[in-house]
Amino acid sequence: MAHLLHAGSMKNSEEFPPMESFPRFPGSITREFLTIGIAPVGPDFDVEYSTDVGFWMVWLRLAHDHAMESAAARETALVARRAGDAPAVQSALWSEFRHGLQAVTASAYSLEALCKMLEARGAVDEETEKRRRKRKPWASRRVMETVLLVSNIPAPRMDRLRPNIEQLFNNRNASVHPELDFKTNVRHHALDVDVNPIYVWCGSEQAVGGFAVALEFLALAVVHVDDTSYSSQFLRIAREGLVEFLREHPDLVSDEAPELADLIANA
Questions:
Q1: What end-to-end distance do the CA atoms of the chain give, in Å?
Q2: DSSP assignment string, the chain
Q3: Is 146 exposed, middle or buried (0-12, 13-18, 19+ CB in 10 A)?
Q4: Under a CB-based contact definition with an 8 Å cutoff, are residues 206 and 102 in contact?
Q5: Distance from chain centroid for Cα 177
Q6: For 196-253, how does the pLDDT look when each residue is reduced to its tens digit (9 = 90+)?
Q7: pLDDT above 90 as % of the chain
Q8: Beta-bridge partners for 49
Q9: In the chain, where the domains are located
């Protein structure tokens, strides 16, 4: 029977060659401490490293990868549907759903992870915290409110983006917090077959669209960061991770997303 391991409990007896450095994960924070001890022959100096993994970036990368897989599965499903191959359609639709489900949830989690990082570093004032304790806001609204406390995203952009962020979290909630009642099947608009609604809510359009929404919101947040806020320094670190990601995927940068081009140009 397998057992879960706690951090620090894993020890390998295998001997490895020395490694001078280890690559920093994009978007992570590294702190360096110099410690001084007293050894029998004199002072003993050592350097201790402490890291903070940028989970928002981990989730965003996962969202991208699964969104692309979901879109590819849709193309496979369409080919099978045109050929009238029902088993192949079912297989491809299942693959599209599985990857779409992970893309949708990962996109929402990337925004929540950034929100939690900012909250843990003093982004939210005491008055806002008191209001939240009295009346807990929806996850989507909490994310947007927290980010807007440290970033001056233009109001027109937020007005356009807000319903898309709320829809992303609605799709995520439909899978993470499913209702127990049976759902009436709906007609799949692309494949012309009856499916459970979750296959639409987590289909390739929602997978690719959800990732695009998360990416746009993150880009707006780091481009319009409020430098007067203490927590803004962590958005600038997030900016580094986002720039590195976009350089790996230049196809994501287009005229329709000017903030992404600005990030690359001003890096």
A1: 49
A2: ---PPPTT-----------S--PPPTT-EEEEEEEEEEETTEEEEEEEEEEE--HHHHHHHHHHHHHHHHHHHHHHHHHHHHHT-HHHHHHHHHHHHHHHHHHHHHHHHHHHHHHHHHHHTT-S-HHHHHHHHHSPPPHHHHHHHHHHTTB---HHHHHHHHHHHHHHHHHHHHHHS--SS----EE-TTT--EE-THHHHTSHHHHHHHHHHHHHHHHHHHHTB-TTSTTHHHHHHHHHHHHHHHHH-GGG--TT-HHHHHHHHT-
A3: buried
A4: no
A5: 19
A6: 888 888 899 999 999 999 999 999 998 888 877 777 777 777 888 888 899 999 999 8
A7: 41
A8: 32
A9: 55-265
Both structure tokens of 195: 């499916």
One-letter amino acid of 4:
L
Q: Nearest CA to 99 among 68, 77, 78, 127?
A: 68
Q: Which two tokens stand for residue 219?
A: 């880009």
Q: How far apart are CA 41 and CA 89, in angstroms?
A: 73
Match 């909630």 to its residue by tokens: 173
